Q: What sequence folds into this?
């Protein structure tokens, strides 16, 4: 469903993404990992059609990213969710439903289902300006799923969510993938990627270093153990050191 | 690769979604206003009514005065309307362009909408009409008393007012659409230089404005004579160009007022026609370039920018060694933000730079050789203009300072400093920048006007009082009425707190400048070019007495304007929870 072929994105003299090839198939949950500034968000924005690649092609379901057809297939949950402060959560969901031209009855049913799934009934009719970050995140997840997307792009999905909401989101990702949705999830939380992703890709300095299942990655790096060690070996070589000045003396003040 | 092609949302469905969104937003905002603070609502309504009534009586009096010129009055009105609508044309081009740019390229809403099935021209339409409404409401507030004053003095039929509304709606679309086209083209072709292009254009327009004022300024002594009138209309002939939409507005409105409905409607149709073409052009540009332009602007934001100027910081520490170190650091933080945000310093530089240019050209214009009465009048006008520009600076940049701390407010709250020190730091920052720029300007202007040392000293003292008072008002009210949810300083300044801050600042400036200008004006009014007494209203002794009273009064008002808002602000800031 998602395909990037030889994609490069240059910002001034900086090469944010460098000849990147990536495929995420229908039903696959892809965990996109990499250090800060590695090019994850730039890649995601290109998949969503918000940034145009300098060279190469990005397609969604065979359609060029950013085209009308590609946008119809896609749902995007950014790391900083956007909601209209002067709308209620329900009004926002209805706006998204209207935007995707869904049948009113079906859409209403879907909205109610999502309100229950994300446990939003207590506040969904209040203005969004009063929501906490976690509440906003839940509304945004609901809005992403309300139109049954075929491709789900999520940037840092669990930021600001309490454990219960995080569990709901994780379960939904898995169920979405199992129902045939291609899920591209960018995260810094290695445990989440390890727990959820069918396939993991590690990107650094704009290049895909390695791609495969956790076992494939271990084999590639010739290293057993947690994903963290694998990630550190692939992206930095070593475990980062703490400067001696920052190490406590171990004695109480 | 793809299985079945997706079922696409139709343009009609997207349009309906946006209509519903608008409806919900307007309804919720109205409900919030009505159920919110009644005092705030009453105050806004009261201020608007007072402002409207004052403008109405001003315009009505002006039209009554023009009526004395008999047959010439019609020509006058056309010239006034042409000039008014031409100014409107230029201002709406810039304001709608800037607001559209912010809405299309800088707000997170744009990223959200661009990933939905909405087409680029539909998103543009939504943001464009929002920008036009925001930029035009003030002109409707300004234009309606003008038309009411004219309508009553010309005894027009009531349907004239409806026609005026139609004229205004069509007219604002022309500069708005062209401003939006410019915004998209700048974003598409100059994604890194949008601020410098804007600053250059604004500087050009302000220069043109100053040139216009210099052109129109009457030579002392010959105002309202037939020769003066003739030469004035000659200088204004540029606004009567038949290809300008402002000319169509003035011609159409004057003809409609006379009862020539066919001519009035003809010009209305011409304006509607061009408004339609201008909007179509904007929509086509948006359809073809918006997505690409958005990608470029976002890309340029990701490029790394080098920062420097640490020598200035070092110098600051040395010069202000007597301030406590943490306060110096806080001031330095605001100073760095100011230095690294071109939107702040470029506006500051443009306005004060152009004022400096004007002051430098005072002798070339020949103001310095005029009678003391004129020089005194011009010096106070200079002071008034400088103070007004300073008040826009404090309202636009100083008032939002605390609000902009926003989500990082806890950092200030947890600093090992008393909260009052934080506000005093911001106050010192504002006063320092204000004093540095305005004192230099006022001294320059007075020297060019060859003002006596006593008057220069008086003006410098006034500027000190004004800088302290305006900074106190902006910092104090900024802490009392913060808007921690908004990230855009222009929106914070345009909100209730910002508007109140501007109003209080204007009243303060008016009080200080007029109380000191009055005794000076009455003293100089009868002097000839050599300073000898003619028909003086005040003798020298009386002048010194009343000036002393005015200075004392100004010092008291200045102290109150500085201390009271700061105290209110400090009290509110101490109580604030993070």
A:
């Amino acid at each position: 469903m998602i395909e990037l072929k030889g994609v490069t994105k240059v910002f001034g003299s900086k090469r944010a993404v460098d000849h990147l090839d990536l495929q995420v198939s229908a039903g696959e949950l892809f965990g996109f990992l990499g250090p800060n500034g590695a090019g994850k968000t730039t890649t995601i924005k290109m998949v969503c059609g918000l940034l145009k690649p300098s060279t190469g092609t990005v397609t969604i379901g065979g359609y060029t990213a950013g085209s009308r057809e590609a946008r119809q297939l896609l749902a995007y949950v950014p790391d900083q969710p956007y909601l209209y402060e002067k709308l209620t959560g329900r009004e926002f969901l209805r706006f998204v439903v209207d935007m995707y031209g869904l049948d009113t009855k079906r859409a209403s049913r879907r909205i109610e289902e999502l309100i229950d799934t994300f446990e939003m009934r207590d506040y969904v009719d209040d203005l969004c300006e009063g929501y906490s970050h976690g509440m906003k995140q839940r509304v945004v997840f609901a809005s992403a799923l309300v139109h049954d997307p075929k491709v789900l792009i999520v940037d840092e999905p669990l930021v600001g969510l309490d454990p219960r909401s995080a569990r709901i989101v994780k379960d939904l990702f898995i169920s979405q993938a199992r129902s045939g949705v291609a899920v591209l999830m960018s995260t810094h939380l290695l445990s989440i990627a390890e727990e959820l992703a069918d396939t993991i890709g590690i990107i650094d300095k704009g290049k895909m270093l390695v791609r495969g299942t956790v076992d494939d990655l271990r084999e590639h790096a010739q290293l057993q153990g947690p994903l963290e060690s694998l990630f550190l070996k692939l992206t930095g070589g070593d475990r980062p050191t703490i400067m001696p000045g920052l190490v406590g003396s171990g004695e109480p003040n | 690769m793809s299985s079945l092609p997706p079922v696409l949302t139709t343009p009609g469905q997207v349009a309906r979604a946006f209509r519903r969104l608008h409806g919900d937003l307007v309804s919720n905002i109205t409900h919030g206003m009505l159920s919110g603070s009644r005092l705030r609502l009453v105050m806004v309504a009261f201020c608007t009514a007072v402002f409207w009534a004052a403008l109405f009586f001003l315009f009505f009096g002006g039209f009554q005065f023009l009526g004395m010129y008999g047959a010439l009055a019609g020509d006058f009105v056309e010239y006034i309307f042409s000039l008014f609508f031409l100014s409107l044309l230029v201002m709406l081009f810039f304001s709608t362009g800037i607001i559209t740019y912010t809405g299309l390229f800088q707000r997170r809403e744009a990223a959200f909408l661009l990933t939905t099935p909405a087409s680029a021209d539909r998103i543009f339409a939504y943001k464009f009409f929002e920008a036009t409404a925001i930029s035009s409401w003030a002109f409707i507030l300004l234009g309606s008393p003008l038309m009411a004053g004219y309508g009553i003095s010309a005894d027009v039929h009531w349907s004239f007012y409806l026609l005026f509304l139609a004229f205004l709606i069509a007219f604002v679309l022309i500069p708005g659409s062209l401003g939006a086209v410019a915004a998209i083209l700048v974003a598409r072709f100059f994604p890194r230089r949008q601020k410098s292009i804007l600053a250059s254009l604004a500087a050009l327009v302000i220069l043109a404005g100053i040139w216009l004022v210099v052109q129109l300024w009457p030579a002392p002594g010959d105002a309202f004579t037939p020769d003066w009138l003739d030469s004035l209309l000659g200088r204004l002939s540029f606004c009567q160009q038949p290809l300008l939409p402002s000319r169509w507005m003035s011609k159409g409105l004057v003809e409609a007022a006379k009862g020539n409905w066919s001519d009035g409607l003809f010009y209305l149709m011409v304006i509607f026609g061009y408004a339609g073409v201008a909007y179509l052009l904007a929509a086509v540009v948006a359809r073809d370039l918006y997505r690409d332009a958005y990608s470029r602007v976002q890309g340029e934001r990701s490029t790394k920018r080098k920062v420097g100027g640490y020598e200035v910081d070092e110098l600051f520490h040395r010069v202000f060694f007597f301030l406590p170190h943490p306060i110096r650091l806080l001031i330095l933080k605001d100073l760095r933000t100011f230095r690294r945000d071109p939107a702040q310093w470029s506006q500051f530089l443009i306005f004060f730079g152009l004022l400096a240019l004007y002051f430098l050209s005072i002798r070339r214009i020949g103001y310095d050789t005029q009678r003391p009465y004129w020089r005194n009048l011009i010096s106070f006008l200079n002071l008034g203009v400088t103070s007004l520009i300073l008040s826009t600076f404090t309202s636009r940049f100083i008032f939002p300072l605390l609000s902009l701390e926003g989500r990082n407010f806890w950092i200030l709250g947890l600093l090992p400093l008393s909260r009052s020190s934080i506000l005093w730091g911001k106050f010192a920052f504002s006063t320092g920048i204000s004093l540095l720029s305005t004192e230099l300007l006022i001294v320059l202007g007075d020297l060019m006007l060859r003002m006596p040392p006593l008057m220069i000293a008086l003006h410098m003292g006034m500027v000190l009082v004004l800088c302290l008072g305006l900074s106190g008002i902006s910092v104090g009210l900024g802490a009392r009425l913060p808007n921690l949810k908004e990230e855009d300083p222009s929106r914070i300044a345009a909100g209730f707190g910002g508007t109140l801050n501007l109003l209080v600042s204007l009243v303060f400036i008016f009080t200080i400048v007029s109380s000191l200008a009055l005794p000076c004006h009455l003293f100089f009014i009868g002097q000839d070019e050599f300073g000898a007494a003619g028909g003086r209203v005040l003798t020298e002794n009386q002048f010194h007495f009343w000036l002393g009273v005015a200075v004392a009064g100004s010092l008291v008002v200045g102290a109150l304007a500085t201390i009271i808002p700061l105290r209110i602000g400090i009290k509110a800031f101490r109580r604030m929870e993070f």
In short: The longest strand of chain A covers residues 14-24. Chain A touches chain B through 45 residues (CB under 8 Å). The beta strands of chain A are 2-11, 14-24, 29-33, 55-60, 63-64, 74-77, 151-155, 182-186, 199-204, 207-212. Chain A is about 35% helix and 25% strand.
